[in-house]
Amino acid sequence: MIEQSVSSPPRGGARLPVRADAGRFLILTVVFICAACGLVYELELVALASYLIGDSVTQASVVLSVMVFAMGVGSLLAKRLRCRAAFGFGLLEAALALLGGSSALVLYASFIWLGESRYAVVGFSVAIGILIGAEIPLLMALIQRFSRQDAEGTVADLFAADYVGALVGGLAFPFLLLPWLGQLTSALLTGAVNAVAGGGLVLWLFRRDLTPRSRWVLVTVNVLVLALLATAAALVDDFERAARRAVYGDQVRVALHTGVQEVVITGGRSGPLELYLDGRLRVSARDEFRYHEALVHPAMRGPHARVLILGGGDGLAAREVLRYGDVREVTVVELDPGVVRLARTDPALRELNGGVYGDGRVKAVYADAFTWLRGARDAGDAGGVGGGGSGAYDVVISDLPNPGVTASTKLYSEEFYGLATRVLADGGRLAVHAGSPATQRRTYWTVDATLRAAGFGTTPYHATGWPSGFAAGPDRVKDGTPAVSDWGFELAGVGASPRLGLARDVPRLRSLEGAMLVAGARGVERTRVRGLPPSTLVHPRYGG
């Protein structure tokens, strides 16, 4: 009787190898591990969709909604497997490990070599969602072999382990897996953990429920899955090098992941330097001077002893500022220390920016621009920077990512520009890179409306460059067809619209002339979209 109560399942069936409490604990542990792995797959898909396709809000919404729907479908389909719950769960976890573990590799490959990853993202979301949704019904059938609780108590335990596992997976993804392993290896490792946990549970704890043929099938499938994941992990570096060559060409000199983004530099020795941030071309030595001259020099008409640059860690905007001999101080607020480090140490990039970080007048601050401005405002209220006092900046230059990129919308909000008014000296000017008035008309004129709502008078203008795809162009040039660069700017002053022009002491410029500015201002007015509301933190309004 004692042996029967210890080793036999409460509801009959094959004898189990451990006590009921131990078996129940092992199943809940596997629930915890599978939930953590499932959330890592989910976050991996969201991150990759945002990175490869853009518009993180839309991509997150698509991935999450599709996955939740697919999980419901998976729960319904799992009913067909409950009669063979152990075997079904073992196959399900092997399939989930393979799909989830390989998802990052396949999505990157489809984007790089096929030029499109939207359908692959949706396909993986559906497939992974179905498999995740089928887990709980099968695990419910398995845990009842060991549980003497009522059904409600068993369900509560399962969902508690599931939710705690999701918490751990959700925190591990951004804080451990991505920084230490990167997207590809972290997905492969997660798949391996998933396969070991699911396969180990079934092949050991429920081995007496399996026929010899079922055990052989599960062992073979799990060994193949682990072998495939291990092989892919061993080839990750080769895959990344091939992918970079396919995207950036054969002249990649620097490729690194900082704590903020992926940074790639090509050329600089045998060809023009190009700097990519998260796959988007940010600097092209062929025509970057056209962009930076147009951004900086109109704002330098007037007092410019103290200049604040928001973004611009590459040092190229600072290079243009330092061409004025009476500049006393330049503060560069850059989120990514890795970009500034490259601007200091990479020979080609340092040559392009004129070695500005070796100039004692330049100070780099590593911070989010919004957070830094809020801190500067508080310091100004206490008698430091801001409020039009003696420590305020004569010129503020906003050299930030395109406002159409979702992650940048707070840096183009009414609240952000309100903070900028606090650090401007009386009569100071703010220059803003505002996207392309030709291809992003609503985005560009939303910036104008937002500046006006924050109390600025605005003077819109634009400039064009060589066909390189830099800045306002696409993420990468496709099919060898160049895209014409078109950069829109806003010159703003508190309460009044600054007059567009160049300073009397302007140094000799390579491309910019006063007549070009006036013509650019007239041209951009023809694209005006009227009646647009401002963008705020609680209601971002930027779009194509």
Automatic annotation (TrEMBL):
Gene coding for it: speE
Q: Can you name the source organism? A: Streptomyces scopuliridis RB72
Q: Note the PROSITE patterns from the entry.
A: PABS_1 (PS01330), PABS_2 (PS51006)
Q: What is the recorded name of this protein?
A: Polyamine aminopropyltransferase
Kindly give the Pfam families that the UniProt entry links to this protein: Spermine_synth
What's the protein's topology in the membrane?
Multi-pass membrane protein
Q: Which residues bind spermidine?
A: 292, 314
What is the stated purpose of this protein? Catalyzes the irreversible transfer of a propylamine group from the amino donor S-adenosylmethioninamine (decarboxy-AdoMet) to putrescine (1,4-diaminobutane) to yield spermidine.
Q: What EC number(s) is this enzyme filed under?
A: 2.5.1.16
